[in-house]
């Protein structure tokens, strides 16, 4: 048994099965694209109709960062957390080996345009990432990421995995809160 990968997988797996995945049930397109405040970052079509995530490639992010929609948060986890890292470390070889984990060649050909596509992509990329982690030996988890890790080349795979677990839980909690706000927005009574 690879105890480290089993424990790491169990941490994210428990969160996925009992917290995040159930909170995505019944997500509608209207809710997925809902912008509760002005100037949200979201996922929207560009001038050619291809979906793009606002703020992608913007560094440093504005301070404070813009409020982000459910679409932005779900696509961020699906693509920015799972897809790019799974492609980098567990890919099929279609992306050249010189591409580090921040290289745009690790992005999917298209981003989801609606809630069903986004939830489907999230599940697919979660499985791709966690299947890869599950197969890692304890020794591999302790090795440095190397050139594919980009700025984080000296950090271990275990550090990356734990960071992605935190990132998923952080944005997953925001997803749950936004869903609660969306559900209660029609009946909310604001008082000062």
What can you tell me about this protein's structure?
- The protein is mainly alpha-helical.
- Helix content is 52%, strand content 3%.
- The protein is built from six helices and two strands.
- It has helices spanning 3-23, 29-32, 70-90, 115-134, 138-142, 157-184, and strands at 43-45, 51-53.
- It has a two-stranded antiparallel sheet.
- Strand 1 and strand 2 form a beta hairpin.
- The protein starts with a helix and ends in an 8-residue tail after the last helix.
- The model has no long low-confidence stretch (mean pLDDT 93).
Instruction: Give the strand tally.
Output: 2
Distance between the termini: 57 Å
Largest sheet: 2 strands, antiparallel
- So how many helices? 6
Radius of gyration: 18 Å
Shape designation:
globular
- Average pLDDT rating: 93
In spatial order, strands of the major sheet run 1-2
The low-confidence runs, each spanning 5 or more residues with pLDDT under 50, are none
Roughly what percent helix? 40-55%
H/E series, N to C? HHEEHHHH
Q: Which class do the helix and strand fractions yield?
A: mainly alpha
Strand content: under 5%
């Amino acid at each position: 048994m690879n105890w480290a990968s089993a424990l790491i997988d169990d941490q994210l797996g428990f969160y996925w099965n009992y917290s995040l995945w159930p909170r995505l049930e019944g997500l509608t397109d209207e809710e997925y694209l809902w912008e509760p405040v002005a100037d949200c970052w979201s996922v929207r079509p560009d001038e050619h109709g291809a979906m793009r995530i606002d703020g992608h490639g913007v560094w440093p992010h504005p301070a404070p960062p813009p409020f982000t929609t459910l679409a932005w948060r779900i696509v961020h986890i699906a693509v920015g957390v799972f897809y790019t890292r799974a492609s980098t470390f567990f890919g099929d070889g279609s992306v050249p080996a010189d591409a580090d984990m921040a290289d745009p060649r690790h992005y999917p050909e298209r981003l989801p345009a609606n809630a069903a596509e986004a939830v489907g992509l999230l599940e697919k990329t979660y499985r791709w990432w966690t299947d890869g982690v599950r197969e890692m030996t304890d020794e591999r988890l302790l090795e440095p990421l190397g050139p594919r890790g980009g700025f984080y080349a000296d950090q271990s795979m275990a550090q990356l995995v734990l960071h992605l677990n935190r990132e998923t839980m952080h944005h997953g909690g925001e997803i749950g809160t936004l869903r609660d706000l969306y559900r209660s927005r029609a009946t909310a009574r604001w008082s000062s």
